[in-house]
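Changelog-adjacent note: as of this version, every example in the card shows the full chain rather than a window. The one below runs 329 residues end to end.
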Amino acid sequence: MIRRQIGRTGRDVNAIGLGCMGMSIAYGEPMDQAEAVKLLHEALDLGVDHFDTAELYGFGANETLLGEAFHDRRDRAFIATKFGPVGDLATRTVRGVDGSEANMRRAVEQSLRCLKTDHIDLYYLHRKDPNLPIEETVGAMAKLVQEGKVKALGLSEVGADTLRRAQAVHPIAAVQSEYSIFSRDVEKEVLPLCQETGVTLVAYSPLGRGMLTGAFTRDHRPEASDYRAAVSPRFQGDAYEANLALVEEIGKIAAARGAGASQVALAWALASNPNVVTIPGTTRLANLTSNLAAADIALTAEETASLNALAAKVAGDRYDERGMTLVNA
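Full-length structure tokens:
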């Protein structure tokens, strides 16, 4: 097990956490609640203590799931959640981002109720509100720290300039961004700034939304109900075929080690920088156990160089056109 601190909070977590979104939305039908709670308990018992959720993940459904799982063992779970995107519960559609204090107050109280807790360990702005200065939103979030409702603040999918401006208002413990062998934009400015200022980079989708696991093939694609088929260009058309060829390269390195492609992908992310922690998602105990074993893999310089070369060959953006307007903001 590798343990790393979250920012300068003094709180350390298993560097391989659990992204919980897929238990409730996005990748097909939601998990049965009892099965999901069982998996969360098993994760805790295996040493996972960093659990990531958000209001957006089922408009409270995913937070409610974590509340059911951890309300009676809250001291063992480091829970991160997020606010910002707003939408319609009935249609499960997002209409924009609201980083105002009024929306934050509504969202945090709802999150506390759903999570059945009196505090949130790490509270993120899920996406920057394009209509508000980051200073205004972070200033409001800082009040939650003063009130004891939130222990630390984070930002998701922001650029280096936004992070600097936010840090001038209140310490930022973590920046959450997509980061994997296939997605390395943060290495240009955000990750160096995080390392310089003691901010943890929380890597979501370190397995490329499942693509880097090797589970997908030319004949086995995401189903129509899976959001990857609709909003992720990397899973569409010719780009999908091209990217599978790159995954085969990861698979060759993994096979030579007697490991899985997902383990190699996680090992790469953990070795990339000591400021990085990961939150791969899964709905299966076998995958969770496999992911945790990645902490024991030390890649050689030659293997790392081969994996690093793949990013420049990836086809397609990680989100559709609308989604890309909200990242690196």
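Structural remarks: The longest helix spans residues 237-257.
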